[in-house]
Amino acid sequence: MARRKTTLTVLRTEALTPHMQRVYLGDPGFEDFEPVDYTDSYVKLAFGPEDDEIKRTYTIRSVDQDAREVAIDFVVHGDEGVAGPWAANAKPGDTIGLYGPNGAYKPRADADWHLFAGDESAIPAISAAVEALPEDAIAKVFVEVADRKDEIYMETLALVDVTWIHRGAGSNEVSEDKAGDNAPLIDAVRRTEWLPGQVQVFIHGEAQAVMHNLRSYVRKERGVPAEWASISGYWRRGRTEENFRVWKRELAEAEAGSNA
Ligand SMILES: Cc1cc2nc3c(=O)[nH]c(=O)nc-3n(C[C@H](O)[C@H](O)[C@H](O)COP(=O)(O)OP(=O)(O)OC[C@H]3O[C@@H](n4cnc5c(N)ncnc54)[C@H](O)[C@@H]3O)c2cc1C
After folding, report:
1. Are 57 and 43 in contact (CB under 8 A)?
2. Is the pLDDT of residue 115 over 90?
3. Residue 182 has pLDDT above 90, yes or no
4. Band of residue 260 on the pLDDT scale cut at 50, 70, 90
5. Ligand 1 centroid, distance to 58 Cα (angstroms)
6. pLDDT by residue (tens digit) across 18-69?
7. 237 in ligand 1 pocket by Cβ < 6 Å?
8. 121 lines ligand 1 (CB under 6 A)
9. The ligand 1 atom nearest the CA atom of 84
10. What is this structure's pTM?
11. Which residue, by CA, sits nearest to atom 29 of ligand 1?
12. Ligand 1 in reach of 238 Cβ (< 6 A)
């Protein structure tokens, strides 16, 4: 469902890691922001003039009603693009338009265990989900980042086993032999022991690694039904978000054709 546009103001920024910049947004504008009850709650950020907006999709990492602020964590991926460079250079007093939030996922209490996997772009959604797990939940988390300096502490009450996978460079800088079909995240997830009982899966990140590798592993080889699996690409190597939307549409059409 399309949601109305709100405009928030940059309050401050914080470099969480060499490749992750947190931007806190708030007043003027906070009263217009209506949170939704999903841990993968996301907005479309609007850049440029109103009649020619460029939109980029970002997870709401957290909402603090007392402080009247929203945090969004942006992957810093060089000078290319709109949103990444905007976040790297954001200053208090800058404003930004947001459509949403919408959302689709939150951890289910009836799952026996949870599997989370992704790259830097999924850290905000994975962190929010892990934070929301109750004490008796069990989870395995796999996150691919450049190196140790990009690891982020994940707060939780649950029994959570976090594995950081180091590819050796930022997601935009890494060579082909460690990206896409060769992303080390794929092997790490495939190698992990599958726990007994019903798993709920949340896997997001670079689309080639996720859609052409991890999705088929989880859905076909492990037989996880669609209602227990939130799996999609968040971005695509070598494509802007507009071109990535074209790629997603073509993939969906090809899959619909092969199922017909
Ligand atoms: C539901 C959802 C939630 C998301 N949440 C987040 C979030 O919380 N934080 C976040 O950082 N991203 C998130 N993303 C991914 C984000 O929307 C894309 O990375 C987006 O393309 C960034 O826009 P941009 O203007 O910076 O770069 P674009 O103009 O879209 O792309 C420019 C170039 O940068 C490359 N690029 C884009 N993203 C990355 C990246 N992550 N790493 C390396 N290279 C990249 C592209 O391949 C392209 O070559 C989310 C996506 C979805 C669908």
Report:
1. yes
2. yes
3. yes
4. low
5. 8
6. 999 999 999 999 999 999 999 999 999 999 998 999 999 999 999 999 999 9
7. yes
8. yes
9. 26
10. 0.97
11. 81
12. yes
Q: 76 CA distance to ligand 1 centroid (A)?
A: 9
What pLDDT is recorded for position 4?
81
Instruction: Measure 67 CA to ligand 1 centroid, in angstroms.
Output: 28
How many whole angstroms from 241 Cα to the centroid of ligand 1?
Answer: 7
Residue with CA nearest ligand 1 atom 52? 234
Rounded to the nearest whole angstrom, what is the distance from the C-alpha of residue 129 to the centroid of ligand 1? 20
